[in-house]
Write a structure and sequence with these properties.
This protein is mainly beta. It has two helices and 30 strands. The strands form eight sheets. Strands 6, 7, 9, 10 and 12 form a five-stranded antiparallel β-sheet that branches.
């Protein structure tokens, strides 16, 4: 900074020596430049000091957290082996799985996880009948405040019994979590609850890098383990009790003494649907408000007492002013159901049913017309399941005097590649679909209620 000011002064002195004038001081421009340089210097200095203070503060808090973790670990080590466990955990004990400790005017969250380890040394379950070889203790400290934790303080240790291994019984829970591509999901939260044993089990743990949770020493019992798996911004998969579903496909887990209970769960990032309700093609697809419909996924979780399927997702709503957003949907194939609506579905883009992938925001434009008791929506596709906007459908019932032809909606419209026939009678009809460059396709259709038919056209030889 001093060198900069000397340079400015020397520059003025040199200029004055050539002009023969006497120096009377700095010009306004030179003064402003000098002040700007000084401002930059002091601002930089302030940032450096602030960063130094931040680092010092974080270091002091982290040292306190480390000391707290070491104290907690020593407390666990000094317990009798049989008491090393968490409240509601496997193994069970008196240690709180989560607690808040205040030190030096700072609140620390202490999370303690204790699990049995099935060591490879003497084989693993189910070959190893007593596979609760020793216990692994993990203590994690996090905190907020002025100097929040950028990453936690974590200590891990193994605690072995006095003998060769523990004589604790129970079975082993072997839980696998994967996504829509059948790849393992790491860091998923697995919640395990069991109120049928004493002490009760209420614990949480995370899947490892292979999407696995292995818990030896689980107390044996029949249909008693409620297991729920999820992750932030992911769907949820779980076991179901008979109070939730009469005949669940994934019932509460059973653990048998000395045996391996293996379960798989599928979760992935959730998606959303934005559904717009529009009027008929003839009216130019105007916005239609308050269209009632039910969105139902194909995935079922079991059967009710009448042996009817219980769907994991079934949601009734309406489009309000013409648009409704439905978030938090897992990957699945969803059907737009208008059986309880005052409208018929006269086409949608993408066509109904809707195939929804993980982590997707899909917009669906659907055509809705006033409901008639009997109707037919024809979806016309090629062999690659692409909609054919050049196709047309002819529906006839010569005995009833009905003969009508409807062209498919053009490319980009809400009923692209689709044709709708309303106000039909209950009867058998002949359907013929044609498109340039494709072989003609025919079908017999029995109309009763509101029907949907997909026709595949093959290229001409």
């Amino acid at each position: 900074m001093i060198c900069r000011l000397q340079f400015i002064f020397q520059k003025r002195l040199l200029r004055s020596s050539f002009s023969g004038k006497k120096i009377s001081g700095f010009t306004m421009v030179e003064t402003l430049v000098a002040l700007a340089v000084l401002g930059i210097f002091f601002a930089s200095l302030a940032l450096i000091i602030q960063q130094i203070l931040q680092n010092v503060g974080e270091s002091r808090v982290r040292e306190t957290a480390l000391a707290l973790a070491q104290t907690k670990m020593e407390t666990v080590r000094n317990l009798p082996y049989v008491d090393v466990g968490t409240v509601g955990g496997i193994p069970s004990g008196a240690i709180l799985p989560t607690e808040t400790v205040a030190l030096n005017n700072q609140d620390f969250i202490v999370t303690t996880s204790i699990l049995y380890v099935d060591d490879l040394f003497d084989d693993v379950a189910p070959q190893d009948l007593i596979n609760t070889d020793y216990k692994r203790v993990r203590v994690e400290i996090t905190w907020g405040g002025v100097y929040p934790a950028r990453y936690p303080v974590t200590l891990v240790t193994n605690i072995a019994p006095k003998g060769i291994e523990t004589i604790a019984g129970g079975g082993t829970l072997f839980l696998q979590v994967f996504n829509a591509q059948a790849l393992p999901v790491s860091g998923a939260t697995v919640t395990i609850d069991n109120t049928a044993v004493n002490p009760q089990i209420h614990m949480q743990t995370l899947t490892n890098s292979n999407g696995l949770v292995v818990i030896p020493g689980a107390p044996a019992c029949i249909a008693c383990y409620q297991i729920t798996v999820t992750k932030t911004n992911y769907s949820t998969d779980k076991t179901y009790s008979t109070q939730e579903v009469a005949n669940p496909l994934t019932p509460l887990a059973t653990v048998i003494e000395g045996q391996l209970t293996q379960l798989s769960f599928a979760i992935d990032q959730v998606s959303s649907l934005i559904i717009n309700s529009l009027g008929s093609r003839a009216s130019g697809y105007p916005t239609v408000s308050n269209v009632q419909f039910t969105l139902r996924g194909n995935r079922i979780i079991g059967y009710d007492t009448n042996d009817f399927p219980v769907y994991k997702y079934s949601f009734s709503t309406n489009t309000g002013g013409g648009t409704v957003t439905i978030p938090g949907l897992e990957w699945d194939t969803y059907t737009l159901d208008f059986s309880s609506s005052g409208y018929n579905l006269a086409g949608s883009n993408p066509p109904n049913p809707l195939s929804l992938s993980p982590a997707t925001n899909m917009t669906v434009n659907m055509v809705n017309v006033p409901k008639t008791n009997n109707s037919l929506l024809v979806i016309m596709q090629d062999a690659a399941q692409q909609l054919l906007s050049s196709a047309s459908a002819q529906l006839t019932n010569l005995g009833g005097g009905y003969d009508a032809s409807v062209s498919a909606g053009i490319t980009g419209t809400p009923d692209m590649g689709q044709a709708f026939f309303g106000s039909l009678s209950v009867a058998n009809y002949d359907l013929k679909v044609t498109a340039g460059g494709y072989q003609e396709a025919t079908a017999s259709v029995s109309i009763s209620g509101n029907n949907q038919q997909t026709i595949i056209l093959n290229l001409e030889p």
